[in-house]
Design goal:
Blueprint (H helix, E strand, L loop, with lengths): L3 H6 L4 H9 L19 H5 L4 E2 L26 E4 L5 E3 L9 H18 L21 H5 L16 E3 L4 E3 L9 E6 L5 H14 L3 E5 L15 E5 L6 H8 L8 E5 L11 H10 L5 E8 L10 H5 L5 E3 L28 E5 L5 E5 L3
Parallel strand pairs: 6-10, 6-11, 7-8, 7-9, 9-10
Antiparallel strand pairs: 1-2, 2-3, 4-5, 11-12, 12-13
């Protein structure tokens, strides 16, 4: 991760510059720390008040408008000099150990004590933090990161973790159009997302009907408690499918998970699929469909096109800007292309916000 000094010289974002210029008018104030590179460049010109602690070269104080001859040879820990006037200031130390490691350890201890003290404060009333997003995470670990304050139905499914303060994200398919689209090229992790949905639903007592016309990890769920049927052919019998989903109710919901959905676009159960998407929420039914971004939910009509009306889903390593239509967002060219990289995706929950999430697996 670059330091602020490095960012100042190269990739300082427009958002940070705007915040520094206009933030005070809306009550936002920034405190930045760094090495001597903070004293030059764009950050320096946008910052009125600057303090210099002990610097490696006393001549660097000239960047603060302070002649080097006015700065003592020995500067104790926590001693600083304000720009222009050279006003001598002592910052409070957090511990007797004046080394950087000692002060960092004291700060960490304060943070741990505050976290323990405020453990019962609702998330909405806590100050936000910015967590480091892991490159990999298991489903049980991600499951524990769900927001405990959020209300959700048994048709809520975990897709991934993300956000400034990392939480588990996913759609509640009991709300709105009861559909969710998982799209991406081959080997992008589509079946993994479906597997996580399956784990989520089964953990909450939601029963499953699965369609996997090609080899898929979801076939391993055949015979498991709560799994009513796993269809493995390239067609789904309408009468059998109708009999299965007729068991659904708001108290005993059923989720239909479909892998390689483009193969089943014209299946025998097409009319039942269309009813599920249009009126399934009233009956405790939901659908998650995964497929190749170029073929799934394509065309101008049909049950898969109806599934797009939910305007929510996840894109995995998208290669085309037009793939955003599958989940109800617009993509620019900088967001598509490149090598297929399983484990991350762009999630849209229908709220207009596109989130980058790490997918458990």
């Amino acid at each position: 991760m670059p330091t602020l000094g490095e960012i100042d010289h190269g990739s300082l974002t427009d958002e940070l510059q705007t915040m520094m210029r206009e933030g005070a008018s809306v009550g936002i104030h920034l405190v930045l720390t760094g090495d001597r590179t903070l004293l030059v460049g764009r950050i320096a010109t946008l910052t009125e008040d600057k303090y210099g602690l002990r610097l490696a070269d006393r001549s660097d104080f000239s960047s603060l408008g302070i002649p080097a001859r006015k700065v003592p040879e020995e500067i104790p820990p926590g001693r600083a000099f304000r720009n222009e006037f050279g006003t001598e200031t002592q910052f409070a130390l957090l511990a007797e150990d004046t080394t950087g490691q000692g002060q960092a350890a004291a700060l960490a201890a304060i943070g741990e004590a505050a976290a323990a003290r405020d453990a019962d404060v609702p998330r909405s009333r806590r100050p936000f933090r910015v967590d480091s997003l892991p490159s990999r995470i298991s489903f049980p670990e991600a499951w524990e990161m769900r927001d405990p304050d959020a209300s959700r139905s048994r048709l809520w499914g975990l897709v991934g973790i993300g956000g400034d303060e990392i939480v588990g994200f996913g759609p509640d398919l009991a709300e709105g159009v009861p559909a969710f689209v998982v799209a991406g090229p081959a080997k992008s992790g589509r079946s993994t997302v479906l597997w996580n949905f399956a784990q989520s639903f089964l953990a909450q007592g939601t029963r499953l009907v699965i369609a996997a016309p090609r080899q898929s990890p979801l076939r391993q769920l055949d015979g498991r408690d709560g799994v009513l049927k796993v269809f493995t052919g390239d067609d789904i019998d309408e009468d059998e499918f109708e009999e299965l989903i007729d068991q659904a109710s708001l108290e005993e919901p059923i989720a239909v998970l479909i892998d390689d959905g483009e193969i089943l676009e014209d299946c025998d159960a097409e009319s039942q699929m269309k009813k599920l998407v249009s009126r399934g929420a009233e009956r405790g039914l939901a659908m998650v469909i995964a497929g190749d971004e170029e073929d799934v939910c394509s065309g101008f009509s049909g049950w898969q096109v109806d599934a797009k009306k939910a305007r929510r889903g996840i894109l995995l390593s998208p290669q085309e800007s037009s793939s955003g239509d599958l989940i109800g967002v617009r993509l620019n060219r900088g967001m598509v292309g490149g090598q297929v990289a399983p484990g991350k995706g762009m999630l849209h929950l229908g709220d207009g916000e596109l989130r980058t999430v790490v997918i458990p697996g």
